[in-house]
## 1
Amino acid sequence: MTDFQSNEVHLVFNHYPERYQKSLLTIRALIFDVASKTEDVGVITEMLKWGQPSYNRAIVLEPKNNLPIDELSICIEMALTYKLRKKR
C-alpha cells in the first residue's frame, strides 16, 4: 500500500465505517497503481476537499457490491490522462 501523503487523509480513512474501509483502501491503491503504470501521469497528489479524500474525480459506487476492478482501472487511467490526450 502507498503511504498516505497527509495525516489528515489517513485520519479520514480511519474514520470510515469498518465495513467500507477495505473497498475504499482498494480503490485508493488502484489509483496509485494505475498512475504508476500510466506514462506521463506523474505524481498523484492526495488531499482533502470538503473533508473527503480527493484525486480530482468522483466515481459513485454501491458499497455492498463487489468492486469492478477492471472498469475502475479504465476510469482511473482516463481521469489521469485526459489532459495528456488533449495535447496529442
## 2
Amino acid sequence: MGRYHDDEQIIIPQPEFEKNPHEGLFILRNILVQHRDDPGLLQAATATLARICSYAFLELHAELEAVDPRSVRRELGELDFETADGKRGRGAELERLHKARIPALVERLDAIIARTDIPPITLAIRERLRRIAEILDLDTIERDILTHLVLAGVGQSTADYHDNLARMTNGRAQLAAILCGHPLADVKARVRADSRLFRTGILSFETQYGGRVHFDINSQLNELLADDLAGETEILEALFGKPVATSLQAEDFAHLAADRDRLVRLLQNAVAGGARGVNILLYGRPGTGKTELAKLLAAEADLPIYAVGTEDANGDEPTRSERLQSFLMLQNVMPGSNRQGCCLFDEADDVFESPSLFNPRPKGSKLYLNELLSHNRVPTFWIVNDPRELPETARRRMTYVLHVDLPPAAIRARILSRIARGAGLALAEGAAQSLARRYPVTPAVLACGVQAAMLTDGGAEALEDALAGLADGLGIRPEGKVGIHAERRFDIRLNRTDTDLEEFANRVAAARGTSFSMCLHGISGTGKSVFAAHVAERLGMEVERLRASDLLGAYVGQTEARIRAAFARAARARSFLILDEADSLLRDRSQARQGWEVSQVNELLVAMEQHPLPFACTTNLVGQLDPAALRRFTFSIRFDVLDGATAAACFRHYFDSAPPHALALLDGLVPADFALVRRRAEIMGHLDAPDALLAMLGDELEKRDEAGGKAGRDRVGFQLRQARQTPGSERLN
C-alpha cells in the first residue's frame, strides 16, 4: 500500500472548479482507475476534489468520503499494518474494503461525467488543439497529453488542483498519465526529454524542490489558443511570425561578394538535400548589417527566413527558455509542414552563456545546446557581436563563420545616399562620399545621423554635425585627408624621390591584380601617404589607412590580434592598406627589451608575407626598422626634401603665383609646408603677398630644424629680412 498523506499538506483552492467540473471529474476518475493501489494518493486527491466539488455535487460527496482511507479506518478502528507475529492484521481488510468501493465510485463518476456539460471554452480549446495537433503531426496520446495539460490550467482552481497533483505524483509521466487518462506505459515514451512534445518546444518541464514536477506550455501556443485560426498558414504565422525581409541590396555587401555567393549556394544545397546541423555564425561590431545580411542571403537563396525568440506571447522581452522554445518549435514543425526556410537567431549570446568571473556557472546545459547545433533541421543564422561570447564547443559546430565588418567608404557612401534620399534629405554631389570617408561608422549609425538631421530640419551640415557627435560618442576618430597637402589636387611631380613616381604608378597600374608591398620612407610631410593613396586610386582600390596607435594594444596579445584583424579586413574588403608609423611596429628586434616587442614584429612580418593584396608602410625612421622587414618589401622608395626646382613648382601649385628668388635659399622644404602655409595665409589674407608667404615658409623650416636639434639658419634669416624690406621682390619666372 502507498503512503498516507496528511490532509494539512493539501492546499485547498477556492471553489471555482465548479465552473469547469468536467475536467476535474475526469482527472479524479483517472486517479481511481490508475492508482487504486495507492490509498495515499487517493486520500489526498479525493479529499481535495471533494471539497472543491462539494457545492455542485453533493450527491458525490458521500462516495468520495467512502473511498477516503480515513473513513475506512474509522469503520475498522485503529489501523494495524503488521502484528508482532508477522501477520498483516486489519491492514489487509482495510485494503480489501477500499478497493471494493472504488469500482462503484468509478461507475458513479462515469454517469455524472456523461451528463455534465462541457464548458464552451473547453470545447473551443479542444477543437483548436485538434487542428494544431494535425499541423504539428502529434499522435492521439500526444494530443491528449497536451489538451489536458492546457485544460488543467484553465481557471485558477483547476490550476491549483494541477499543482496539488504535482506535489503528490512521482515524476512527469505519472502526472501526465493522470491528466490525460492513458496508461502510464504509453505516456512515458511521450514525455521523455527527447520526445516530440519536448523536442518541438511545445512543452518544457522543471523538477522543483521536493521532486515536484512543473509543466510549462509554449507561450506562443497558449496565446494561439485564444484566437480561432482556421488555416494552416495562419496557425504557422501565429507560431513563428511572418518571414522577415531586408531593405538592403546585394551591392551593399559587395565587399563580401565571395562569401555572399558561397553562402547562397550553401543554403540552397542544404535545403535541397535536407542537411542537418547547418549553422552560420555572423559576427562583428553592432550596426554593420549582420542581421540584414542574413535576410539578404535567404532572399537570394529564394527562402523565407523567420526571426525566432524576439519577443514573448505578450510582446515583452522573452526569457532564455522562451527563446529556445521558439527555436525548437520552428526547427521541428517547419520540416513537418513540408515548408522550407531559414531560421534567424539574433543576439545568440543570450542563450550561449559562457563562464565568466561574475558568472562561473551559467544556466543551461552545454550538452543540450551542442545537440541542438548538431541536429537542427532548418539552416540557422546565429548573430553575435563577439564570437568569444559563444563557448568554443558551439563555435566548433558552426558550418560557416563570417566576420561582417565595416563596409568600405564607397559602399558606405552608397548606403548613405540611399538613406538620405529615402528620408528626403538633399545632399550635394559628392557630399555622401566625403562624409562616408571622413566618418568610418556603420550603416546603422549613418541612418541615425540622417534621422537626427531630418528631425532638426537641417541639411548636410546638420548631418555632418550629427555624425561627428555619434562618432565621438562611439570613440571613433574621424578620418582626415591623406596627407595635409592633399587638400589640393595631387600632383605627382611635387615629390622628390629616388624613383620616378609617375613611371612607377603607371607600371603597377598596368600590373593590376599583382600583389606587392611598398616601404615609403623619408621625413614627415614629404608625401609618402598621399602617394600611397594615389597608387591605390590607380589600382581602383579603396584605401584603409591605419596608424600604429590604431593597432597597439595595452594587453599582451592585443596588438597581434589587431594586426591580424586589420590585414584580414583589408583582404576581405579588397582594400589598399596603408600602415603609417610602421617603425613603431617593425622596430629592430635586436633592440627589443620585452618579449611582446618581438612577438608583434613577428606577427606583422607574417601578415605582410601572407597578405594577398598590395599594401604600403610609411615611416620617418627607416633606420630603426628590423632588417627582416626591409627584405620583405617589394619596393622601397625614399622621399627627400624638395630641391629648388620642385620647391618652385610647389609654390606655383599652392599659391597660383610665381615664386620669389629667395625661395631658393630655403633648403629643406617639404610639400606639407606649402599646404600648411596656404591654409594659414587664407585665414590671414596673405595669399596675394608672396613675401609673407615666403616668410611663413621660412618659419616652418626653422621650427622643424629646431625640433630636430639643428642650428638656426642665419643666412636664410638674412635673406628673408631682405625680402621683407623689398615690397616688390623679384620673382622667379
## 3
Amino acid sequence: MASADESKLKQFIDAFLTCTHCKKRFDRPSILTCSHTFCRECLGKLIQTDESVTCPVCQENILLPRKGISEVKANTFLEFVLKYVNVLETFSSPDSVKGNCKLCEGEGVTVFCSECNGLICSVCENQHERMKPFKGHNVVQLSELLKSDIVDVIRTLSKGEQEENCSSHDGEPLRFFCHRCHIAICRDCTVVEHNTGDHRVSALDEITDARRRVLGDLLEKTTEKKDRNAEFIIGKDQTKQSILDQKAEVANAIENITKELVDQIEEQKSKLLQKLEKVTTARLMRNEKVFEAAEADQEQLTECCGMTSLLLHNARDVDLLQINGEFIQAMKKQNAKVENASFAAELSRLGVVFKPGVSVDELNIGTVSPVQYDQKATAVSESSSTSWAGLEGSLRGFSAAFWNSLKE
C-alpha cells in the first residue's frame, strides 16, 4: 500500500476498531444495547454489579442479560472487519505482494481469497474456478484490492463471502432469523430450538432487507441532525467571543454607572461638608459670644461681691446705711440677669448630627442576570437549518437586560 493508503487504514482502525477503554485494537468485540463496543475483557472490568454496567462513552446504565457478560452480544460485524483489516495491513509491506502463494507456496500471487484468507497465484486461482472444494470462494484481483478504498474493500469482501454456518449444526447455513432471540439460525434450529409458537421465524434475506431500510431511514435522519449540529458547533468561537464582548460591555456599564454614582456622592459629600462648616462656624460664634458675655459678667460679679462683702463686714453703721441702697440695687440687677450657664447648656444641646439618606446595605447600583435565549431560535432542532443566528441575536439583549435592571 502507498503511504497515503496506509494513513487512511490507520485512521480507519483508530476510528472504528479501537476500544475506548484500553485504547487498543478490539479483542473479541462485544456490543452493548447503547451500540458502543468494547473488548470482552474490558467489558468484564467495567461491570460494577451482576445486573448492569455503565457505558463509559455515553454514561447510560445498561442492564446485562440474565446470564451476565457471557450473553452480551459479540459484534460480529467488527469481527469480520478485523479479520480483513489484519490482512490488508500485510499489503503495507513493499514485499507483501511478492510473497508465496497461500496454497502452493509458489510465486507470482495475483488474487486474494477471503475463504483461504490469503494471497494465491494464478494457477490456484484457476483451481478455485474448476474444483468443487473451492466452489463459492470469494476471489478478488489483487490489483483491484490494492487500489480500492478501505471501505470499498470491506464491502467487496463482505458481498462475496460465503454464507456463515450454524455453530450448533455443522454445515447448515444461517438462513433464518428468530425475532424472539434476535439471532440468525439455520433450518435445523427452526425445527429444534426455535419451533415453539413464541419463536417467530423469518427468512434471513427478508428481515435483512427490512432492517436495512429501517437503518437507512434512521441513518439519513440522524445524518441530517449531525450536519445541523456540526453547523451549530462551528459557531462555538463566535458565541464565546460574543459572550466575552457582552461581558466587557456590561463591565464598562457597571464602571460608568459606578463612577457616575461616585461623582454624585462626592458632590453631595462636598455640599454636606460645606453645610457642616457653616453650621459649625455659627455654633462656634454663638458659643464665643456667650462666653465673652459670661466673662464680662464675671468681672462685674466679682467686683460687686467684693465691694459688698467689704461693706457688709467692715463698714461703720453710718457708712453702711449711707450707701447700702446702691449695693442692694446693683446686686439685684446682677441677679436679675439670665444665667449664662443656661446659654451654655442650650448650646450643648444644639449639636450637629449626620443622618444618612440611605444605608450601605440598601445601596444597589443594579443587577447582572443572564438572558433567557429563545429556545426555538437556539435549540438544535430538526425544523431549523442553523441556530447560530438566533443565538447571536439573543446575546445582543444581554447588555439591554442589565441596563433595564438598573432602572428597577
